[in-house]
Amino acid sequence: MLLLDVLNAQPTTAAAEVIAGEEVIAGENATPIAELPESWQAIAQGESNTRLSAPQVTVAMAQLFHYKLTHCDLDLFKERPELSHLQGCTRDLLSQLATETLEFYGQDFRVRRYPDFDTVFRELEKRDLEERHLEKRDIEEKELEERHLEERELEKRGLERRKLARAPKPLAPTAREQSIHRFNIARIGVDLFSEFGYDLPASFYHVHLAPLQRDHVFEERALRLDPRDQHHKRPWDAVLHAGKVFAIQAKIQSIASQYGLSYQHSGGDSHISAIDKTAGAFEYTLNTPKRNRWLRSYLWTMWYEYAFFDLIPNTAYLTQSLR
Question: Structure pTM?
Fold first, then answer.
């Protein structure tokens, strides 16, 4: 049975059988719920502060994910029997990564982890007022300095001092543009939440709001190397790499394009993350019959990208200027 069929299957009592200490979900072996991290047991029992629209499906995915890694149930060993002697040491590593991954996402689905968009907009309004005030003061100080320099030059030339009429200078376009883009990024976050809600983890929204916390909205940030991103580089990178599920990526970019923006990400040396301007908006609607399939595939991809984050080879050569 295809993995996508498994992820779409609604696990029921009939679909999930317990056989010799293991569960079988839609024909595939899975870890029993009792052996999952406690946060997932709480989700399964409805005792976790999460709002998944179909928690039983997501829990079934966690059971399958955990089993496949802890039992080395991978094509690497199924299709290459000559590597079977490596399963023992590999199992120890993958078991640790499976536990780390599910422990993180078991918490990341909790409501308290999600951004409070009302607070986001209030902070943006406060920041906008402060920056406009500082910019106005800087402009006034610069104009005063220029006036003093001009008066000293006139005095040096023995010319009569004269007062020059000056039109007030507007706020710098770059500052206005930064403010507009910040508010638009926040609106993108709201639109993404309206589209996906609590079915995607909190880190999905935080990484798309990340440009709000940077020195300027178009700053390219090296997630792997920048000390300011060290505590969230792994989940944020997992979200961005899950964009290989193109239908979800297309929907994200479609929403961003309505505000003249697009999200960018590259790997190689440091996992660059950025947002940039784009010309032309486009509409993309997730096909209703396939929507759940794409969401489950996106989440599954996110999990294994999180698990294998530190196993990915990286080199600065890919982004260096060649000589």
Answer: 0.80
Q: Which pair of structure tokens corresponds to residue 79?
A: 């299709």
Q: Are 22 and 30 in contact (CB under 8 A)?
A: yes
- 231 and 241 in contact (C-beta within 8 Å)? no
Is pLDDT above 50 for 5?
no
Residue with tokens 């094509």: 75
What is the average per-residue pLDDT within 107-131? 93
Instruction: Share the mean pLDDT of the chain.
Output: 82
Residue 110, beta-bridge partner list: 50
SS3 state at 15? coil
DSSP H helices, the chain, are 3-8, 38-44, 55-70, 75-78, 87-108, 117-156, 173-196, 202-209, 233-241, 246-257, 288-307
Do the bridges between strand 28-30 and strand 261-266 make them parallel or antiparallel, or are there none, so unpaired? Answer: unpaired
- Each residue's pLDDT tens digit, 142-167: 766 777 777 677 666 655 445 444 44
Beta-bridge partners for 210: none
Is 33 strand, coil or helix? helix
273 beta partners? 221, 265
> Which candidate, 56, 31, 41, places its Cα nearest to that of 103?
41
Sequence-ordered list of residues with C-beta below 8 angstroms from that of 123, at least 6 positions apart, any chain: none
Nearest to 108 by CA among 1, 239, 2: 239
- Residue whose tokens read 């209030």: 122
Structure tokens, 212: 């709000």
Q: At what angle do helices 288-307 and 246-257 cross, to 10 degrees?
A: 100
CA-to-CA dists, residue 191 to 115, 117, 160, 194, 291, angstroms: 13, 11, 62, 5, 17
Phi, psi of 27 (to 5 degrees): 85, 0
Distance (Å, whole) CA 179 – CA 283? 25
> Residue 37 is which amino acid?
P
